[in-house]
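ugh finaly. both done.
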Amino acid sequence: MEDKIIIKGARVHNLKNISLEIPKNEFIVFSGVSGSGKSSLAFDTIFAEGQRRYLESLSPYIRQFLGQKDRPDVDEIIGLSPAIAIDQRALSHNPRSTVGTLTEIHDYLRVLFARLGEVRCLICHNKIQRLTIDEMIEAIQEKTKQIKKNKVKIFSPVVRGRKGEYYQLLYDFLLKGYEVCRIDGKIHSLHDEINLSRYKNHTIEILIDDLDAKDRSRLAEAIENALNFSDGLLLVVFSSGEELLLSSRWSCPRDNFSFPEIEPRLFSFNSPYGACPACHGLGKSDLFTKTICPVCQGKRLKPEALSVYINNKNIDDISQMNIDEAYNFFIAYENKISKREKSIAENILKEIIDRLGFLLEVGLDYLSLSREAETLSGGEAQRIRLASQIGSHLSSTLYVLDEPTIGLHERDTEKLLRILNELKERKNTVIVVEHDERTIRSSDFLVDLGPLSGKNGGEIVAIGPTKSLLKKPSGRSLTLKYLKKEEEIPVPKKKRTSFSESLKIIGATANNLKNLSLEIPLRKFICLTGVSGSGKSTLLNDVLYQNLTRIKNHFSGPLKGVNKILGSEYLDKVVLVDQSPIGRTPRSNPATYTGIFTPIRDFFALLEESRIRGYKSSRFSFNVEGGRCEACQGAGYNLIDMHFLPPVLVECEVCHGKRYNKETLEVKYKGKNISEVLNMTVDEALEFFSNIPQIQEPLELLSRVGLGYIQLGQSATTLSGGEAQRIKLARYLLRPLGRKVLYLMDEPTTGLHFHDIKLLLKVIDELVDHGNSVIVIEHNMHVIKYCDYLIDLGPEGGERGGKIVFAGLVEDIVKEEKSYTGQFLKEYL
């Protein structure tokens, strides 16, 4: 019993009361067509129950802050381990969040720089040594000679920018015989009652002596006392009003430049002690226009933090390196430091090198530590989480992953599979929801759901050890049929090989592109391939889309990231179909975004019951007054403010999530009201409105792009990037198909099964056959083999990428030895 997870009677979403047993400590893949119930079983049943049980084990006090998790609709789950989900949600939209902060590498770098950094003067750039008392006396006396006034006040900065009342501290100094202090720039007598705000930052400096600087012995005694009280700092106030901060630690004896304390917070752009004062550590003077801060030049930190070096690199230099370069830098650094330095930094360096190594293993060598989290794709975000989990060295844990191969080249998929097997070897159970052929074949155990999507899915159509399933009859399993080549995505018998009109890119230098020049034939289906970080997105988005949009809209000024683009006259317009959300609020949904909801509302307004009541089309909109539930203003839920906790969405008590008032819901067609129609999947609605062409045609298109399983009223915030992209594609196809349009897509097969990819390729063919051009970034070998023309970038990612490895007919790439794509494509042609 202990070596299995047993699920009995799972009914979440479209799961049809299924029961199954899966082995523990194995690498298990859940497969099936889109909408077959894979995620419902893996995330909404198994992981959700694991998380609920964990929360129940916590104290009631902690549980009140975390909220009560609902039990998934399942009879019983036996043998469940503590569960961790690694999904594709964006890591963070906080502009302060970077790859370095997310992986904690930046935190270890801060400690390393504080302990072993070489401090250089901001003025003369010479290395700063710690000042002795004699050096301090000479610096003070030299200054009094310059201003020709010998009187100086010696202060000890005992508190610097910290919160508190400090009543006892001030009283203790009074007892020691000191009478005057300066607090936040104002002089106070210690004999007076001094009330400080507990919650504000304060700087407290105790006056140690007011003396003539010529009296060397008295000056030396004052300096020594000041340094003792302040842990090595000294403030000198001259008669001229000038101040000099000296340190027995970091101060330049040549020009009297004094450093703040060299501590980890100096290197944090999230702390006021380290952040650039102009942009407060954001690196941007304007977040909306992404204008680089003119003071720090986007480096986020104060000049002092950037004047501390390790092996001639400051912390920003290292943050700008890609993971591969940073890894090699620290390996070399570790090998050259002294025995004493190694004893100080050994554990810090181990953590940095290990974390960088894990990022390399999951194929993220091309990312830099300074890369902002919000610019990462879902796949990159997931692999960063995965790298963090490897570093945690957990065992006896259940990991649930959502398509970790998204955005990965076949070469990098092999690295990822080694990582997943490493997790398994540590006695963890790894469940992966996946469509990737290589991943499925590499798994120990396969659970295939289907046979189709939505109400036609939710059943187990194949289960067992993967290798033995591949030897048995496929039955109803579409996955096994494609794996065994009983069904396949064929190479087209005739490709579009004629070459007349084309786009010419001359001298592309955006990001890592190496002065790239390229001719792209139009009226074709073109694939843009290459390993992660090779420059595909830069070429598609930054070079083609941004500049062609400027040209077609007649913007003046030079092109960005490229010298010239020729051939734009052959295009009427350029359309980017990317994976950004179709809406940022739960009110946006597939029905409203595609415009399908308009003919549905019009149809309900024409029903006899509506005409009798005088209902117009607007009555059936949940966004305007009249037919919607006013208690929730048509949202179906209310946002409850939890004050110091995150707000919580709660189902509306009046309409119970139906969005409409009672009178509107009384209007029905075939026994269904407008709310029930919104809860239908595309395929269910297609059958429901089978004899109404104006509704049926757009629904058919959504089904053809592989979205038959999504609900019409499904919140936009719950859709994956791949789903959002295909909804956008459907919306463009709903309009009369133009000619001479260039469609640019970024991995449109994200989240698609072989069966759905075949449907999508037919839609792309239809676009091209109408005289349009389609360029897609793609890693799926079945799509790559299908295209008319192939552009392969590389040969590696990051700085070692950005070159054309191959451009031409698909069949010819296998002859190019430098192309990783060509190496893996051979077995598919």
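ok and the 2nd:
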Amino acid sequence: MAETTVAGVWTDSELESLTDAYLVMLHSEIEKEPFNKRQHNIALQEKINRTHASIEFKFCNLSAVLLDLERTYINGYKPRDHYQQALKDLILRRLDEFPKASTEQMNKRTMPVEDPNSKIIDSQTGASSSKSVNEGFLHSKIASDSITLDVKQDKFSKPNDIWDALTALWERSTGGSGVADRPEDSHTSRMPIAPRPAGVEEASVWFGQNLKDATIPRFLFLVGGPGAGKSHTASYLVKDLEKISPGDDGLAHRKYTYKVGNHRLDLINDATIPSDGRNLGPLVQDLQESIADENHVIACVNRGVLIEETNHFAGKDLAELTPGEVITKWLASNEAGFLPDQEWKIYSDLNLDYIQSGFLSHGSRKIAEIVAVFVDVCSLFETKPVPQLDHNNESAMTSYQSTYEIADFFARSDIPIEDYPAGVLFSKIVKQLSTLDFCDVDERFNPIAANIAALGTLPTQRSLLSIVRASEIVSGQRFTYREVWGVIARIIVGGLTETIESSNLKEHVYQMKSDNRTEIDHFKHMRKLAAIRYNQSLFGIGDITSSAKDDSKRNPVTRLTSRVDPMRDAVAGKRSSGKNKGWATPVTEAFSGPAVAGSPLKTLEEILGPEDLFSEIVQPFDRELDHAFATVMSVDTLPESQRFEFIHWYGAYLGRLYAVTHGIPAFEREVALWIEAWYSKPNLPMELESGLQTLLRPKRNPRKEKSASMIPLFDSRTNPIVGNQIDPKLALQTVEPDMRTRVDGEELFLILSEKTEIIALMPLDFAFVREATSCSQDYAGMTELTETTSPRLERFRASLLVPKFLKHENYRIVDGLDDRFITLNED
């Protein structure tokens, strides 16, 4: 019988039991003998009545004690500080039982430790600044006469208990308002924070350094969609300055003005807010005024604003552009179209996808230094590039440039999670929640506790990040921190943030325990709770009710993540055979046998073996669900239609749980191939190039090696002629185009040309890759995305029918299975 315990400080008896279990695992690791951490945890739960998460965290505390005492610790339990003194006293008494630490583990004691309080907090987006090892050149406080990012003024209050922490998720998952935060808004947070998007902190430091002594104005532009933390960054840059206008009326304004020494600073906090009734080019006019007054500028600008503004002067002669128009054009297109006699110019000295810098000049005179950060270019699920901006009188940008790269999809498990901005946020939140207990809530009926415990393993966190990254590639949309918080809320509390008030969460969790009397009702109840489990909620999978089915389309997160639901593309095979070789066979085998007798979960664990990560993430909730399934399958009176429906649902549940554990999204092969194409620019992977050629120019007869592609000349559509042609048609025999690619940020473009003549430029996105991979042996395939790609293929083929590509030798009369040359009389 388990010892009676209370939440909070562990007793000496509990610590003894914890240490005994730790020693068993430690010696197994030293002897390189396989052991199962989950089984040790379960055994300890039965003995001391602590939760899975609490035990896991205490094991990590024990590792921290051993590290401090220069003793070997279990690599799978990374040291976590702030342990209780009683634990250290116990280890000191038993110190001889622990071997001395290896050189590798001891070296970790000398590595810089990140200060969790050295952050900037964003209550809306979660964006933050960070003094990481890779960003050591940054200073939390610059100079006394500078605009600073003084982290000491940040307000970060740790949650009181698990309910307080979970309630904070409600504040993050709502998506925020459509209006930017006011500069004076408070930024108090009860949740961890994350690094700012690439380039933002570096540009902010550049802007603020010695600003009062700047000889010419500085302009900082933060460009991108809502939810990326633009206005929050701006608010921290001006928080210590004296505001001149507007007054404190409690409303959000487009523009604010501050005093900086003997100068002024104009903050365009939200360029989408109308500007004093001016309809044409309000951003341009704001910039004109700031330039005329020689004011510094910080501007938060959505890309849509830039498009609208440039349309106002699209037909204007370049030499006549005003300085505000030159800047706007540069931001919108990264080129100002200089002419020798152009009066206003921007000279660029750094041009990366996500950050640019330059000087605004009037003739030979420098008017302003400019840095623009495009906050939505770099994925928060990729390694964050780190540029260095050095302020001097000659150049805004010099010493170091860091380009943005997309990681090989199958190599993501080798990249430290802290290299991803979103990974930092994920790991900090899980770490915080893992320290808090649900106390007397039965874990068998608590899917939230199951989520937190399973997410405590680093491989599981990496796997989830990979799946969310795949959803960005498949959808063609990058998540801002607003969506990242939505993902985090989903994987912790499912869709509860949309269905109940945060004040009702505690009561709701306590009512999760099943009191149903029949086996069928019990299984239905467990299935309803399973909708909160992250392998279901991440994809918007509910209790198969009509409202739950709609969730994947209504929610801004699941609208994207549902596209990579692993069960949409469950490929037969075993993961042990290699990545990209299929994965669903073990799940299928677990459901073999008449009427699915026994436990599919236990069968799956036996098939996979104890070394598979899957056994680490299975929680008491999953075992109760499995027991409820096995029980309901034994009910003789269960209707066959309901029996098969239950089997189908539970099979998909376990399939998703296994796939998510291993970071397997739907269409994994196509996602990996798109990344390979992005990385191998300007060349194409051979597999993709072959499929694209078939997609663009399907042969009339794929069985013939030299069969050509024929486009009808006078049809309403340019669908190639395939097979037998009953009525004779005039057609154009097309040639095989040359293919190369180019990259703009995360966008990949396919350039098609004939010799040196460019025929077409089209986005090479996931839809195109999926269509291309469906082609085989010169036969064009068809997928659910055919309707998406068809218009682009139509435009490409239509581009071949313009006069410069209509060569006489390529005309054909197509009749039956034959085609004939025709001769045109030019008379």
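summary for the 2nd one i guess: The CA atoms of residues 597 and 634 lie 8 Å apart.
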